[in-house]
Amino acid sequence: MKSPLTTLGVIAAVALTIPLAGCTAPDAADDGTLTLKVAIDAGLDEGATAAFEERADQFEEAHPGITIEPVEYTWDGTTFSAQLAGATLPDVFTLPFTDGRGLIASERIADVSALIAELPYAADFNPNVAVAGEDEDGDLWAMPIAAYGQGLHYNRTLFEAAGLDPDSPPTTWDEVREDAKKIADATGVAGYAQMTSSNTGGWILTTLDYALGGRTEEVDGDEVTATLDTPEMHEVLERLKEMRWTDNSMGANFIYDWGTINQAFASGQIGMYVSGGGNYGNLFTQNQMNPDDYGLTVLPLADDADAGVLGGGTLAAVSATADEAHQKAGVEWIDFYYMEKLTDEDAAVADAEALAASGAPVGAPQMPIFDQATYEEAQTWVADLVNVPLDQMTSFTDQIFEQPLLPEPSHATQEVYALLDPVVQAVLTDQNADIDALLADAETQAQQVLAG
To answer: Which residue has the higher pLDDT, 386 or 31?
Structure first.
């Protein structure tokens, strides 16, 4: 999920069955120059926009004949399928790991695998990361550009207002519940909040289920069985129900997606919530988060051998409507804008300098898409330019590599997430919601989707 993966919730089966319509010809002039439309996150502040523009200028200088045209775009499950069907996506856009293989199998993105294979680092990706952008033959159609492990984000100022130590965030789910109530009682805002819509409800429920040792599917060869109605998922929902109705610690808004919960958290309306551990950049550049308020720690894990942290990431892809010239330019942009800063010291420094000069964040924690050693080396290149409060994130950065990182469910991921959205919504909005019946029904529907 976005993160994304940010960043997370397109119903892939819908997106993949809608035929392309309204396709427009790529922007190319008779003299061989072309305009490449590339995604830029919607709602960026002036500093982040200026940093993007500087990098675009640098790309154009290095690639005469290509003009970069930024297009505001944020992946969202409620709009992506329509953008895909209407061919309104930019030439280069991002999508979550969960959608990669489905779009590749149905050829809904361009096959740029031959161009990617020519890049010097193409064989160096962590195979558990690369698989999200590969076809059945192992050819990479979409480039992994970011990976994440879920984290618990918390507001240090609200912790202090509730008499809690912001340098000692909760380490168990019981402590999360206790701290959420203290924050709500002391401040009147939500001590803890949960995403519930645009498939993010299912994403976060799955995250919490994993943290207790649960899984939402079992795979045996070609047979996939839905496992939503489990003791672990029941425990997750029972805890949320108690926090909502007994503790009254979850506020009054129960219809959040990734964007709206970021807004509420950044504005001081939420004490804690779960999302990708690398979310600081979005909170700062899109939602004006006060750095002094921010804290990040790892998710509490149950004492269970199967417990782990849900991980995912973001792919960069080229539109299926792009012609050969735009495909080539698109891969060059992905290499320049997303990848060089991870693989080349000069590029990493140039990118960090552009970000720092504009006030945009440098050095927020990310999971490595190659290996931990490569990631740590890249961090040393920009150490003097880091401008984020890393000392407020050490509870995350000191422990995340020690936690088992588990991939998202591999089959009908977004469709199953969508089925779980109304489950968590019901628990948070109906005091008499029947968790047994809700999960039994969701599991039956999920099995039908998986069988299809």
So the answer is: 386
